[in-house]
């Protein structure tokens, strides 16, 4: 999948701005960003559901949106909200989706049996979908989105309403699909899910502000993240935000996680600020996280916008 200068405007709102993406076959590619960052809009353009205002898209060798109808035969799509029929059984839901994908009656029957077994619904074919738990509903929706064995799967915040254990199980299924050759593009605002992806894009207000493997993105921040332990964390945070070069300070338990704008003497400046205020604190280096990457990337994007430069 490849997109260049992808943009979408709604009236005066520019929801997606000049996004470039390349997704390799068999990758689990993640979109990370808050609500309103452009994740869903980008996904809908990539799968042909929404016409871009500008830009070029190629998915599985097809030009989008010109060949979107042909693309739909090779992709699966799953939204964050349960979209199957709650008053139909599990069997009936999957049979309906198989019919939509033009599977023969025999193919559909075999495939539905396979999916019910594989996704933990053996012996429950006659159960109404509306009686499932949140995690079970998402598992059923995932099974339905791959009933035709698509080459490419789009998942739009699929685990936003399920518990941590169900999320973990769901991701195990995604990696099984990826191992079998399915390319997966999944949006999320969970940092722990982003860490699971082979590659990751971070969106902020429609702009692509970071793109790379989780290891590369966190590695680029090495030397810029610190841990500060102080007796009064709330007061310490107020002081930290006045120190030159400190971008953010987040309290985690009794300590503070600090992100600096560059590698340098940030730790020294913090120590001198605490000494001048008559406060004791321990400052030590810590390993960067994807949350640090997100804060750094969005902060740099805001700085560029304030200077009036192009992103």
Automatic annotation (TrEMBL):
Superkingdom of the organism of origin: Bacteria
Keyword tags: ATP-binding, Nodulation, Nucleotide-binding, Transport
UniProt key word Cell inner membrane: no
Keyword flag Transport: yes
Gene Ontology MF terms: ATP binding; ATP hydrolysis activity
Residues in ABC transporter domain copies: 1-230
Recorded family membership: Belongs to the ABC transporter superfamily.
The protein's name in its UniProt record: ABC transporter ATP-binding protein
UniProt source species: Microbulbifer thermotolerans
């Amino acid at each position: 999948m490849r997109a260049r200068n992808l943009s979408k405007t709604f009236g005066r709102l520019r929801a997606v701005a000049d996004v470039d993406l390349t997704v390799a076959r068999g990758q689990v590619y993640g979109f990370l960003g808050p609500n309103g960052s452009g994740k869903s809009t980008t996904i809908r353009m990539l799968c042909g559901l929404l016409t871009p205002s500008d830009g070029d898209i190629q998915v599985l060798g097809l030009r989008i949106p010109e060949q979107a109808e042909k693309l739909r035969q090779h992709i699966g799509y799953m939204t964050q909200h349960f979209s199957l029929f709650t008053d139909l059984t599990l069997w009936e839901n999957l049979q309906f989706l198989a019919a939509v994908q033009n599977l023969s009656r025999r193919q559909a029957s075999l495939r539905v049996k396979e999916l019910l077994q594989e996704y933990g619904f053996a012996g429950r074919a006659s159960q109404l979908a509306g009686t499932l738990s949140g995690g079970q509903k998402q598992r059923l929706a995932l099974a339905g989105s791959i009933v035709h064995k698509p080459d490419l799967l789009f998942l739009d915040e699929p685990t936003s309403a399920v518990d941590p254990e169900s999320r973990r199980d769901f991701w195990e299924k995604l990696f099984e699909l990826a191992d079998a050759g399915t390319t997966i593009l999944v949006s999320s605002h969970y940092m722990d899910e982003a860490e699971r992806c082979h590659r990751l894009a971070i969106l902020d207000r429609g702009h692509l502000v970071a793109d790379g493997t989780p290891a590369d993105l966190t590695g680029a921040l090495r030397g810029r993240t610190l841990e500060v332990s102080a007796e009064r964390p709330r007061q310490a945070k107020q002081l930290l935000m006045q120190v030159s070069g400190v971008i953010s300070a987040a309290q985690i338990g009794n300590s503070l996680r600090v992100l600096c704008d560059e590698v340098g003497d940030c730790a020294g400046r913090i120590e001198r600020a605490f000494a001048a205020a008559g406060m004791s604190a321990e400052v030590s280096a810590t390993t960067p996280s994807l949350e640090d990457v997100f804060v750094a990337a969005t902060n740099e994007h805001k700085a560029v916008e304030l200077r009036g430069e192009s992103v």
